[in-house]
Amino acid sequence: MTQDNYIIREIQPKDNMQVAQVIRDVLIELNVPKVGTAYEDKALEDMCETYNKTTSTYYVIEHCQKIIGGAGIAQLDNYDGNICEFQKMYFLKEARGKGLGSKMIAICLAKAKQFGFEKCYLETMPYMESAKALYAKNGFTSLDKPLGNTGHYSCNVWMLKEL
Protein backbone atom coordinates (compact mmCIF):
# COMPACT_ATOMS: atom_id res chain seq x y z
CA MET A 1 0.00 0.00 0.00
CA THR A 2 1.36 3.41 -0.97
CA GLN A 3 -0.02 6.81 -0.09
CA ASP A 4 2.00 9.99 -0.54
CA ASN A 5 5.25 8.01 -0.66
CA TYR A 6 4.35 6.02 2.47
CA ILE A 7 4.64 2.31 1.84
CA ILE A 8 3.07 -0.23 4.20
CA ARG A 9 4.57 -3.66 3.63
CA GLU A 10 5.50 -6.84 5.47
CA ILE A 11 8.75 -6.71 7.40
CA GLN A 12 11.92 -8.02 5.76
CA PRO A 13 15.16 -9.16 7.47
CA LYS A 14 16.92 -5.94 6.39
CA ASP A 15 14.38 -3.96 8.47
CA ASN A 16 15.19 -5.55 11.85
CA MET A 17 17.65 -2.95 13.15
CA GLN A 18 15.55 0.03 12.03
CA VAL A 19 12.34 -1.41 13.51
CA ALA A 20 14.01 -2.08 16.89
CA GLN A 21 15.37 1.49 16.88
CA VAL A 22 11.96 3.00 16.01
CA ILE A 23 10.27 1.12 18.86
CA ARG A 24 12.93 2.03 21.42
CA ASP A 25 13.05 5.68 20.28
CA VAL A 26 9.27 6.04 20.64
CA LEU A 27 9.25 4.36 24.05
CA ILE A 28 12.03 6.69 25.26
CA GLU A 29 10.21 9.73 23.82
CA LEU A 30 7.07 8.75 25.75
CA ASN A 31 8.97 8.05 28.99
CA VAL A 32 7.75 4.47 29.00
CA PRO A 33 9.31 2.17 31.62
CA LYS A 34 12.05 0.01 30.14
CA VAL A 35 10.93 -3.01 32.17
CA GLY A 36 7.57 -4.70 31.76
CA THR A 37 7.14 -3.22 28.26
CA ALA A 38 8.15 -3.94 24.67
CA TYR A 39 11.44 -2.13 25.32
CA GLU A 40 13.00 -5.21 26.87
CA ASP A 41 11.47 -7.79 24.52
CA LYS A 42 14.10 -10.11 23.04
CA ALA A 43 11.96 -10.16 19.88
CA LEU A 44 13.01 -6.59 19.04
CA GLU A 45 16.37 -7.74 17.77
CA ASP A 46 14.88 -10.06 15.17
CA MET A 47 11.35 -8.93 14.42
CA CYS A 48 11.24 -10.54 10.97
CA GLU A 49 11.98 -13.99 12.38
CA THR A 50 9.70 -13.43 15.38
CA TYR A 51 6.70 -12.74 13.13
CA ASN A 52 7.59 -15.32 10.47
CA LYS A 53 5.00 -17.81 11.71
CA THR A 54 1.82 -19.27 10.28
CA THR A 55 -0.55 -16.96 12.18
CA SER A 56 1.52 -13.84 12.72
CA THR A 57 2.83 -10.97 10.67
CA TYR A 58 4.44 -7.58 11.15
CA TYR A 59 4.08 -4.60 8.85
CA VAL A 60 6.35 -1.58 8.53
CA ILE A 61 5.78 1.90 7.19
CA GLU A 62 8.56 3.01 4.93
CA HIS A 63 9.05 6.60 3.77
CA CYS A 64 12.00 7.62 1.60
CA GLN A 65 13.68 4.26 2.30
CA LYS A 66 13.45 4.80 6.07
CA ILE A 67 11.28 2.75 8.47
CA ILE A 68 9.11 5.20 10.42
CA GLY A 69 6.63 2.85 12.06
CA GLY A 70 5.22 -0.61 12.35
CA ALA A 71 2.64 -2.94 13.88
CA GLY A 72 1.82 -6.61 13.89
CA ILE A 73 -0.44 -9.39 15.00
CA ALA A 74 0.28 -12.75 16.58
CA GLN A 75 -1.49 -15.41 18.63
CA LEU A 76 -2.11 -14.05 22.15
CA ASP A 77 0.51 -15.56 24.48
CA ASN A 78 -0.58 -17.86 27.27
CA TYR A 79 -4.25 -17.81 26.30
CA ASP A 80 -6.37 -20.77 25.31
CA GLY A 81 -8.65 -19.30 22.67
CA ASN A 82 -8.85 -18.01 19.13
CA ILE A 83 -7.62 -14.49 19.93
CA CYS A 84 -4.72 -12.63 18.38
CA GLU A 85 -2.87 -9.69 19.86
CA PHE A 86 -2.27 -6.42 18.04
CA GLN A 87 1.36 -5.77 18.90
CA LYS A 88 4.10 -3.20 18.82
CA MET A 89 2.44 -0.35 16.94
CA TYR A 90 4.92 2.48 17.23
CA PHE A 91 5.32 5.45 14.89
CA LEU A 92 8.01 8.10 14.80
CA LYS A 93 6.70 11.69 14.97
CA GLU A 94 6.86 12.11 11.19
CA ALA A 95 4.38 9.23 10.73
CA ARG A 96 1.77 10.50 13.19
CA GLY A 97 -1.37 12.44 12.33
CA LYS A 98 -1.50 11.23 8.73
CA GLY A 99 -4.13 8.49 9.06
CA LEU A 100 -1.47 5.79 8.94
CA GLY A 101 -2.48 4.36 12.33
CA SER A 102 -6.01 3.53 11.17
CA LYS A 103 -4.65 2.12 7.92
CA MET A 104 -2.18 -0.05 9.82
CA ILE A 105 -4.91 -1.30 12.16
CA ALA A 106 -7.17 -2.14 9.20
CA ILE A 107 -4.41 -4.04 7.40
CA CYS A 108 -3.48 -6.01 10.52
CA LEU A 109 -7.09 -6.85 11.38
CA ALA A 110 -7.81 -7.98 7.82
CA LYS A 111 -4.82 -10.32 8.07
CA ALA A 112 -6.01 -11.54 11.49
CA LYS A 113 -9.38 -12.44 9.92
CA GLN A 114 -7.55 -14.24 7.11
CA PHE A 115 -5.69 -16.23 9.75
CA GLY A 116 -9.07 -17.20 11.26
CA PHE A 117 -8.89 -15.25 14.52
CA GLU A 118 -12.23 -14.28 16.07
CA LYS A 119 -11.07 -11.43 18.31
CA CYS A 120 -8.11 -9.10 18.61
CA TYR A 121 -6.65 -8.03 21.96
CA LEU A 122 -4.20 -5.24 22.73
CA GLU A 123 -2.41 -3.68 25.67
CA THR A 124 -1.26 -0.11 26.11
CA MET A 125 -0.55 2.37 28.87
CA PRO A 126 -3.00 4.81 30.45
CA TYR A 127 -1.09 7.95 29.47
CA MET A 128 -0.97 7.01 25.79
CA GLU A 129 -4.14 9.01 25.18
CA SER A 130 -3.88 9.34 21.39
CA ALA A 131 -3.26 5.60 21.02
CA LYS A 132 -6.25 4.75 23.23
CA ALA A 133 -8.45 7.14 21.22
CA LEU A 134 -7.24 5.61 17.94
CA TYR A 135 -7.99 2.09 19.15
CA ALA A 136 -11.46 3.10 20.36
CA LYS A 137 -12.16 4.84 17.03
CA ASN A 138 -11.27 1.55 15.33
CA GLY A 139 -13.70 -0.52 17.40
CA PHE A 140 -11.63 -1.69 20.36
CA THR A 141 -13.43 -1.63 23.71
CA SER A 142 -11.88 -1.52 27.18
CA LEU A 143 -11.56 -4.58 29.40
CA ASP A 144 -11.41 -4.74 33.21
CA LYS A 145 -8.55 -7.23 33.28
CA PRO A 146 -5.90 -8.63 30.95
CA LEU A 147 -6.22 -11.71 28.77
CA GLY A 148 -3.37 -14.18 28.55
CA ASN A 149 0.03 -13.23 29.90
CA THR A 150 2.17 -11.11 27.60
CA GLY A 151 4.74 -10.25 30.28
CA HIS A 152 4.04 -6.54 29.77
CA TYR A 153 2.97 -5.86 33.33
CA SER A 154 3.51 -2.09 32.91
CA CYS A 155 0.78 -2.02 30.25
CA ASN A 156 -2.39 -1.84 32.30
CA VAL A 157 -4.93 -0.76 29.69
CA TRP A 158 -6.50 -3.75 27.93
CA MET A 159 -8.78 -3.62 24.90
CA LEU A 160 -10.56 -6.13 22.67
CA LYS A 161 -12.27 -6.10 19.28
CA GLU A 162 -14.53 -8.68 17.63
CA LEU A 163 -13.33 -9.51 14.13
In a few lines, what is going on in this structure?
By secondary structure, the protein is an alpha+beta fold.
Structure, explained:
The protein has a single domain (2-118), classed as Aminopeptidase (3-Layer(aba) Sandwich). The chain has an eight-stranded mixed beta sheet. The mean pLDDT is 89. It has 163 residues and is of the alpha+beta class. It starts with a strand and ends with a strand. Helix content is 26%, strand content 29%.
Main CATH class = Alpha Beta
Q: What structural class do helix, strand and pairing data support?
A: alpha+beta
Residue-averaged pLDDT, rounded? Answer: 89
CATH topology: Aminopeptidase
Radius of gyration: 14 Å
Number of domains: 1
Uncertain segments of ≥5 residues (pLDDT<50)? none
Tally the beta strands. 8
- Major beta sheet, strand line-up: 1-2-3-4-5-6-8-7
Features of the shown structure:
Aminopeptidase, 26% helix, alpha+beta, 8 strands, globular
Which SSEs are present, and which pair or pack?
Layout: E1 2-3, E2 6-10, H1 16-29, H2 47-50, E3 57-63, E4 66-75, E5 83-91, H3 100-115, E6 119-124, H4 129-137, E7 141-143, E8 157-162
Parallel strand pairs: 5-6
Antiparallel strand pairs: 1-2, 2-3, 3-4, 4-5, 6-8, 7-8
